[in-house]
Amino acid sequence: MTRSLSAEQRAHAQRNLPRYTSYPTAVAFEADQASSARSWFSRTRSQDRLSVYAHVPFCRRLCWYCGCHTSIAHGYERVGAYLDAVTREIALVAAALGEHDGLAHLHFGGGSPNALHPADFVSLVDRIKSAFDARPDAEIAAELDPGLLSAAFIDAAGAAGVTRASLGVQTFDPDVQARVNRIQPFEQVAQAMDRLRAVGVKAINFDLMYGLPGQTPESVYASARLAAQMAPDRLAVFGYAHVPWMKKHQVMIQQADLADIDGRWAQAEAADAALTEFGYVRIGLDHYALPSDSLSRAAAQRRLRRNFQGYTDDPAPILAPIGPSSIGQFREGYVQNLTPSDQWAAKITEGVLPLGRGLALTSDDRIRAAVIERLMCDLTVDVAALCEAHGLPADYLDACLDDTDALAIAGLCQREGSVVSIPEPARRLMRIVAAAFDARLPAVASRHAKAV
Predict the structure, then answer these.
(1) Residues 188, 194, 200, 201: is their CA dihedral positive or negative?
(2) Coil, helix or strand for 219?
(3) Comparing C-alpha atoms, which of 147, 178, 131 is closest to residue 59?
(4) What letter does residue 363 receive in the DSSP assignment?
(5) Cβ count within 10 A of residue 367
(6) Is 17 within 8 Å of 431 (Cβ atoms)?
(7) Spatial separation of the C-alpha atoms in residues 25 and 16, rounded to whole Å
(8) Using CA atoms, how far apart are residues 434 and 432, in angstroms rounded to an integer?
(9) Those residues with Cβ within 8 angstroms of residue 365's Cβ, 6 or more apart along the chain or in another chain
(10) Comparing C-alpha atoms, which of 218, 219, 228, 116 is closest to residue 177?
(11) Exposed (0-12), middle (13-18) or buried (19+): which is 136, by Cβ within 10 Å?
């Protein structure tokens, strides 16, 4: 059912590498650039469609594998304070933006947006849609915890006009669920999915995971098959990143219960086998979609993009951040809101955009970002042609091309002149090839998870 890693591939797979949802990655953002980054909001253009990422930093339970910025709100007082601050932040951001062509994509992440009271969620969605002139065809997406998804919240999602829900399924294995403190039986997820579709949320995504404590290739395969039988439009299959030095609650997961690199590879291969057996199309590194889904069409037409939510067909050039820790993107560079909620709220009280970090992009950053994105999305890139399209000499990244030759020997890629391609058997190792074009990697590698 699965392919095995060669010795050379195994050595590469042990490397700590970014997921390349951006380049440069978020760990390269700098606090001293936050002030100058505030001016970028006003430089949008009248033809620009707008995306907004809204971060809800609360959950009703703490899953021990979690790497997100979130906390458990005991009682609703802290959530209420967040809602008061985020309401004022929405007005600040809307006033700071220049002309644009309306909100085309709104994504709620977390945490768990369904930690909000249903009426508060509807109010928040309506406020954002109004403040940013939502287009009639705007996609409204929300990441939801299916184990704690009430019928009232599902009704609220329908009333708010949510068009896509992403359910954090992770696994259907009850033993693994118990080991990571995320109990949600298959029947509960299926019922939530049916109810969401009944209220008008037609597009459903699932998140699955491998590398969790107690998982085996067989259990991952079984969970992926159960997920596929429910026919979600898209699935993402993520590898668990064990970083207890960064996320203290992960100490609840014992290293001895985690698979080694060969075991992780076998688990990822098992998920792939199950999903492709059900006709799902492989999308980039770790996403899958039904052939009819817009993500599959974007991949086939090479319109796929990569942003902080993963793979997307969203073409909007501007991503505005809302909520603590939220990341945004402008033509000039990247911004990130302050992460501590009290600091974030304090800036808003001052009437200042609550940016904590930023990074202005250089021409070198832009060409490397373009090469990495095309590799991650298309599995092939003509490096020289892309350099010339960016107004740079065709040989600008020749040193990086030379670095890919060693990777080609290991079977991770193929090179013909300036064209680098990733063969299908090495798809899951594409981050290693992308890293050959990363000029900032030595300074940040220790902050990232294993390549598989």
Answers:
(1) positive
(2) helix
(3) 147
(4) H
(5) 21
(6) yes
(7) 13
(8) 5
(9) 23, 24
(10) 219
(11) exposed
Residue 177: other Cβ atoms inside 10 A: 20
Q: In the chain, what is the straight-line distance between the N-terminal and C-terminal CA atoms, in Å?
A: 18
What is the full per-residue pLDDT of the chain (452 aa) written as tens digits? Answer: 457 888 888 888 888 899 999 999 999 999 999 999 999 999 999 999 999 999 999 999 999 999 999 999 889 999 999 999 999 999 999 999 999 999 999 999 999 999 999 999 999 999 999 999 999 999 999 999 999 999 999 999 999 999 999 999 999 999 999 999 999 999 999 999 999 999 999 999 999 999 999 999 999 999 999 999 999 999 999 999 998 988 999 999 999 999 999 999 999 999 999 999 999 999 999 999 999 999 999 999 999 999 988 899 999 999 999 999 999 999 999 999 999 999 999 999 999 999 999 999 999 999 999 999 999 999 999 999 999 999 999 999 999 999 999 999 999 999 999 999 999 999 999 999 999 999 998 655 556 677 88
Q: Label residue 376 exposed, middle or buried (CB < 10 Å: 0-12, 13-18, 19+).
A: buried
CA dist 190 and 268 (Å) reads 23
The rounded distance, in Å, linking the Cα atoms of 112 and 361 is 31
Helix, coil or strand: residue 105: strand
Q: Cα–Cα distance between 253 and 213 in angstroms, integer?
A: 7
Beta strands in 211-354 (DSSP E): 234-239, 281-283, 287-289, 305-307, 310-312, 318-322, 327-329, 333-337
| Side chain identity at residue 326, one-letter code | S
Distances from the Cα of 29 to the Cαs of 134, 323, 359, in angstroms?
A: 29, 17, 5
110: β partners: 56
Angstrom distance (rounded) from CA 157 to CA 163: 9
- The CA angle 170-173-179, to the nearest 5 degrees, is 80
Contact between 356 and 34 under an 8 Å Cβ cutoff? The reply is yes
- CA 37/CA 328 separation, integer angstroms: 11
191/158 Cα distance (integer angstroms): 15
Q: Please report the DSSP string for 439-451 in residue order.
A: TTHHHHGGGSEE-
CA 118 – CA 428 distance, rounded (Å)? 39
Six token digits for residue 401: 């091309």
- 239 near 261, Cβ under 8 Å? no
CA atoms within 13 A on the CB side of 141: 23
